[in-house]
């Protein structure tokens, strides 16, 4: 029986289209024909309201979920960190691509004198941003991520954090046109479409969002053909690590509007896990770090989250919930 033409649903941004075309190429390598179907999301339409004020759960995925369930598309492609921990009923994860960089990146505004000085200081001795002199002037940094804001304010409490929305290209232009000193981006997004600026710094101290740097592919639960087609390029290691990170997030009852971070990595037969939660203002934080054998790591995200809740994380999580 001939294989059906698979319709790949995607948002219209350059990054989303790059991700969808990556899946299209992987399908072709395994003998499947496909085409892109463009769907607008709420997150693309409203570029002004901060993400954490919109009712963020699924803001970039809801429109594609509806298209899947209405049979307008066969496959939906997302940045996995944008996907809610609870999938829409009738939708399943069919593949996770091999993870790219999970790091956050500070893109400096080279038209701003202090940002230029920062570049020179950092370049001189290859020091991380934490090595800037303690008397440096107050910086203005832009990001729409409440997680990035909280982590930045925890380390640099006197800085000003501004909201920054839009697709990658729009946000980069806004930085150039602003008087900000810089803005924070996901390294993977910029690198995938060849837009990582020369004047950028990897924030090694900033823990990423759960599943950051990974691409997820989804289909309808009963669509065995689409599921099997995607399983050909599923990366088992990335799938396992991001499942741990998402379980950590779900157990903490968190979403995109909660400053929760997680990273699981496989090394020498073990899974190394780091996670944290911050108060929105960055003043409070609770961290956890664990290492277990890969074979014993199936429930690592849940175990780590419960341990962190019992060690001070619950008070922070409750305070965030009460402020909503």
Describe this structure as you would to a colleague:
The chain starts with 5 loop residues before the first strand and ends with a helix. The strands form three sheets. Strands 2-1-3-10-4 form a five-stranded mixed β-sheet, with helices on both faces. A five-stranded mixed β-sheet has the order 7-6-8-5-9, sandwiched between helices. Strands 11-12-13 form a three-stranded antiparallel β-sheet. It has helices at residues 14-29, 42-45, 62-69, 113-125, 146-155, 168-177, 187-192, 224-231, 236-251, 300-322; strands at 6-10, 34-38, 75-79, 91-96, 104-108, 140-142, 160-162, 182-186, 200-202, 215-220, 260-267, 270-278, 285-293. A hairpin with a 2-residue loop joins β11 (260-267) and β12. The protein is of the alpha/beta class and 324 residues long. Mean pLDDT is 87; it is low at 43-57 and 123-128.
């Amino acid at each position: 029986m001939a294989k059906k033409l698979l319709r790949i649903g995607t948002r219209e941004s350059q990054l989303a289209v790059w991700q969808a075309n990556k899946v299209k190429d992987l399908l072709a390598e395994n003998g499947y024909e496909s085409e892109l179907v463009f769907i607008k999301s709420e997150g693309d339409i409203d570029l002004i309201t901060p993400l954490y004020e919109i009712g963020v759960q699924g803001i970039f995925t809801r429109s594609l979920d509806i298209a899947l369930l209405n049979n307008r598309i066969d496959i939906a492609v997302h940045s996995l960190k944008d996907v809610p921990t609870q999938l829409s009923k009738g939708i399943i994860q069919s593949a996770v691509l091999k993870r790219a960089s999970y790091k956050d990146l500070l893109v400096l505004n080279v038209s701003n004198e202090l940002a230029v000085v920062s570049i020179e200081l950092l370049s001189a001795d290859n020091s991380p941003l934490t090595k800037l002199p303690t008397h440096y002037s107050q910086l203005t940094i832009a990001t729409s991520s409440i997680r990035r804001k909280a982590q930045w304010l925890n380390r640099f409490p006197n800085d000003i954090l501004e909201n920054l929305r839009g697709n990658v290209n729009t946000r980069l232009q806004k930085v150039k046109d602003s008087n900000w000193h810089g803005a924070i981006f996901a390294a993977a997004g910029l690198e995938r479409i060849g837009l990582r600026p020369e004047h950028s710094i990897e924030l090694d101290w900033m823990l990423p969002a759960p599943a950051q740097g990974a691409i997820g592919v989804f289909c309808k639960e009963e669509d065995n053909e689409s599921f099997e087609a995607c399983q050909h390029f599923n990366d088992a290691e990335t799938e396992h690590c991001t499942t741990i990170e998402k379980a950590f997030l779900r157990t903490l009852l968190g979403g995109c509007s909660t400053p929760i971070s997680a990273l699981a990595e496989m090394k020498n037969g073990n899974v190394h896990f780091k996670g944290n939660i911050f108060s929105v203002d960055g003043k409070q934080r609770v961290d956890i770090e664990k290492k277990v054998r890969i074979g014993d790591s199936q429930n690592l995200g849940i175990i780590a989250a419960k341990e962190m809740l019992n060690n001070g994380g619950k008070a922070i999580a409750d305070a965030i919930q009460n402020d909503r």
